[in-house]
């Protein structure tokens, strides 16, 4: 026997029983984005590796350890599967000059790729919906992004999410903080693990994000960025908080909120759940005022966030948010030459009237066809024999409730189907 080829570890098939939950999610997300005037942008899944190195940062987990990068042997291009969507979005906005006239409210969605250790809520191909507001500098847009995400949780039936916010200040305050951090960690170098020692001079801020339990104490006592903040960033942060309070959004300030990507400044935030174990972050983002210039565009401020679709779907399930799959309206069973020809016509006729119809294929007795009709979940079976064909009618049987079979014409079938909820 030949070896069975399986999917790649950490990359999941989404089977029909699950896919309809994805459809509900996607539909809800689209309605929600339309409410706030965000427009879709679609970029390729593969980009030049350099785009991600330059934007996410050379000394980050994503670029150092998680990115699927490879050489295209046909032309020696260095390419990568996108590990996130912001860099591509910014690249496209610059390339097509979208910020020329006015700021842009945009969103993207689709698969992202990171070579992480697969576990519940952490996959190598996962899906994100990302929302980006480019060309806006004020705290109002930071607040809009947070407030709109709160509405989405409501629309998805999710409760119990915690909002953490923080600020990373401007480039100068981060530089000052960096110097202080390096000084502090140098004094405690014996407590640093290999990763942290290596990053001490390249990216000390990332040390704060370490999950190593042995380093928690030294991290806990490290200088806090919030104490090094510049005045303008503080005012900006206050203004964001003011709008959130005004709109009744509760939050906690987390002075240690460090995002895993280098491009963030000022406001950062995360929505976190306790219901999914270690993989608790379902949505994260912040301001990235320097990124557009860094990728080669004219300097422009921006802010955005991305959410993890798999984690949100898991959370919806935890919150008991399950919805019925759309079932077929009618399953047509048929036997006899005249009957089968009429069944084909009937099926198309009903579909013209927007009915969801399954036409039995593969023959078999009425009894075995009725079993399939029942298993299909359809509300009705339409039974067509040569008798029905000769009178241009069908025998209708309700499958989900008790009722007599009735011989009806097609208009009556259409009317019945219109009563579906
Ligand atoms: P984490 O701390 O869990 O690794 P992250 O900070 O790396 O998350 P971001 O880059 O901010 O995540 O991506 C935004 C969201 O995408 C996360 O909050 C999470 O919901 C989701 N996400 C990130 N990585 C994965 C993954 N490997 N599998 C599934 N979802 C993911
Ligand atoms: Mg990560």
Low-confidence stretches: none
List the total number of helices.
Answer: 16
The distinct bound ligands, ions and cofactors come out as: adenosine-5'-triphosphate, magnesium ion
Lateral strand order in the biggest sheet: 1-5-6-11-10-9-7-8
Largest sheet descriptor: 8 strands, mixed
Radius of gyration: 28 Å
Which structural class is indicated by helix and strand composition?
alpha+beta
Descriptive report:
By secondary structure, this protein is α+β, with helices and mostly antiparallel strands. Helices cover 39% and strands 20% of the residues. It contains 16 helices and 16 strands. It has helices at residues 16-35, 49-56, 61-66, 86-95, 139-156, 171-187, 194-199, 204-207, 216-220, 231-246, 291-294, 309-318, 337-352, 366-375, 386-391, 410-418, and strands at residues 39-40, 46-48, 69-72, 77-81, 104-113, 125-134, 162-167, 252-253, 265-272, 281-287, 302-308, 330-334, 357-359, 380-384, 394-398, 406-408. The strands form three sheets. The protein has an eight-stranded mixed beta sheet with strand order 1-5-6-11-10-9-7-8, with helices on both faces. The protein has a five-stranded mixed beta sheet with strand order 13-12-14-15-16, with helices on both faces. Strands 2-4-3 form a three-stranded antiparallel beta sheet. A hairpin with a 4-residue loop joins strand 3 (69-72) and strand 4 (77-81). The longest helix is centred in the first third of the chain and has 20 residues, at 16-35. The model has no long low-confidence stretch (mean pLDDT 93). The structure holds adenosine-5'-triphosphate and magnesium ion. Residues 84, 114, 116, 121-123, 126, 128, 260, 279, 281-284, 306-308, 310-311 line the site of adenosine-5'-triphosphate (ATP).
């Amino acid at each position: 026997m030949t070896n069975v080829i399986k999917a790649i570890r950490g990359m999941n098939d989404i089977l029909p029983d699950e896919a309809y939950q994805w459809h509900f999610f996607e539909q809800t997300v689209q309605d929600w984005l339309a409410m706030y005037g965000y427009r879709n942008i679609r970029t390729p899944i593969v980009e030049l590796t350099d785009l991600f190195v330059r934007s996410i940062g050379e000394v980050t987990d994503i670029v150092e350890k998680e990115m699927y990068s490879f050489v295209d042997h046909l032309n020696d291009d260095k390419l990568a599967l996108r590990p996130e969507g912001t860099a591509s979005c910014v690249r496209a906005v610059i390339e097509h000059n979208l910020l020329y006239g006015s700021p842009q409210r945009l969103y993207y969605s689709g698969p992202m790729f990171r070579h992480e250790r697969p576990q519940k809520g952490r996959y190598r191909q996962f899906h994100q919906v990302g929302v980006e507001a480019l060309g806006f500098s004020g705290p109002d847009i930071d607040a809009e992004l947070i407030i709109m995400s709160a509405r989405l949780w409501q629309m998805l039936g999710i409760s119990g999410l915690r909002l953490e916010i923080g600020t990373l200040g401007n480039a100068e305050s981060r530089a000052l903080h960096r110097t202080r951090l390096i000084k502090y960690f140098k004094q405690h170098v014996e407590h640093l693990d290999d990763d942290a020692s290596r990053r001490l001079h390249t990216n000390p801020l990332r040390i704060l994000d370490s999950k190593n339990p042995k380093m928690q104490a030294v991290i806990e006592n490290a200088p806090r960025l919030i104490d090094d903040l510049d005045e303008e960033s503080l005012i900006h942060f206050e203004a964001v908080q003011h709008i959130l309070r005004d709109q009744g959004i509760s939050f906690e300030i987390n002075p240690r909120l460090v995002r895993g990507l280098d491009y963030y400044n000022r406001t950062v935030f995360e929505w976190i759940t306790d219901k999914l174990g270690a993989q608790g972050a379902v949505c994260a983002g912040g301001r990235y005022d320097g990124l557009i210039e860094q990728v080669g565009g004219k300097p422009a401020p921006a802010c955005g966030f991305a959410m993890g679709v798999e984690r949100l779907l898991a959370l919806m399930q935890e919150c008991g948010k399950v919805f019925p799959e759309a079932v077929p309206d009618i399953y047509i069973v048929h036997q006899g030459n005249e009957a089968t020809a009429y069944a084909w016509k009937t099926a198309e006729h009903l579909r013209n009237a927007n009915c969801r119809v399954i036409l039995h294929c593969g023959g078999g007795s009425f009894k075995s066809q009725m079993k399939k009709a029942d298993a299909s979940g359809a509300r009705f079976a339409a039974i067509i024999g040569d008798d029905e064909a000769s009178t241009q009618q069908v025998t209708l049987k309700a499958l989900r409730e008790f009722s007599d079979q009735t011989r009806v014409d097609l208009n009556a079938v259409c009317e019945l189907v219109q009563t579906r909820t």
